[in-house]
Amino acid sequence: MQGEVDNINKVVTSESKESVLDSIKSWKIVIPIVIGIGVTIWMLLSEYEPGSFNVIKFSASTLLWFFVAMIMMATRDVGYMMRIRILSDKDLSWRQSFRIIMLWEFASAVTPSAVGGTSVAVFFVNREGIHIGRATGIVMVTSFLDELFFALVFPLVVFTIGYVNVFGLDEGLAAGFARLAWIGYSVKLAYIILLSYGLFVNPHGFKWLLEKIFSLPYINRWRDKVSSVGDDIITTSINFQNWPFKRWVKAFVATSASWIARYWVANALIVAFFGITQLSLFDHFIVFGKQLAMWIMMLVAPTPGGAGFAEYIFKEFLSAFIPLGTGVALALAWRMVSYYPYLIIGAILVPKWVSKIKVKRGK
How confident is the model at residue 258 (pLDDT cuts 50, 70, 90)? Predict the structure, then answer.
């Protein structure tokens, strides 16, 4: 066991620490903001129609539902904080959990969607006093729970709401969206199956399999990194395999609450700007299902936080529920609630957090 822990400790070398600090520098918020706002302006200029904004209603109800949208995002963050406290056996305080989640979201917002902030989250958890091996396990299990949610809920939602309601008719953009979503889902499903095998069935065999696969020509350059992942799997399995079922349920409920709250943001914004009669109850569930598909599609986005791509796909994918000519404006409002706040909060937290680390390092 000690040898396995020693291998994992190599992950957070001085060089990797510097790499993490470099990846979350505050100035990097400029990139996704420029891309996101730039694409939004381009779409507005190319699709704006005079009088199209007349359908947007501004009233006390607008403020109320905009506030509801922000409450949904806050609920999402609280769910994440609850989950990380459960996974750490409450060794992380609420304040530490808040700091970790905000830094994690900031890292996700300034890196491509396919990369996300998971690669640096281990460092955040470790710097809050959790041993590196255990921190690796906590982050790996959060990833497992997120992917388990998608693996279970996505086909359930598509089956319940209906394929055509989620993706539209199988032609043009609808066909492209459907392909993206199912490709992304296939990747997630494969990941959750392999990770489940490694965590709960045969972690040592999983590591052996990874090393054999990455001993092949052309990909053997990554063998050492993959071997380190295998060590992470083994340590995580030791820490979490014997967890009581009740604790797993609590962690999964917190995960589900976080994602569901995030998806209701768009629903609240549609009501805020177009009135409560804009959507029927079933329409609300269709919008929810479409957002689930959208999030899977965003896996392919090469830009930080999916900037630009997210705004475009939001406008196109939800066009049936948004008055013509207002999709871009609503997409911008959606990102202002669900994305840009993390850039701002992260830009405030990162300098203080980095200073704290440097002080500790100097002792």
Answer: very high
Dump pLDDT digits (tens) for 193-203.
Answer: 988 998 888 88
47-61, 304-318, 346-360: lowest mean pLDDT where? 47-61
SS3 content of the chain, % helix, strand, coil (to 5): 80, 0, 20
CA distance to 182, 266, 290, 303, per residue, from 274 (Å): 31, 12, 19, 30
**CB under 8 Å to 259, separation ≥6 — which residues?**
76, 146, 149, 153
Which amino acid, 167? F
pLDDT at 80 over 70: yes
Q: Residue 202 to residues 4, 148, 156, 230: CA-CA distances in angstroms?
A: 15, 19, 29, 11
- Residue of 300, 305, 239, 352 whose CA lies nearest to 104: 305
Distance separating alpha carbons of residues 87 and 142, to the nearest angstrom? 8
Residue linked to tokens 């979490």: 240
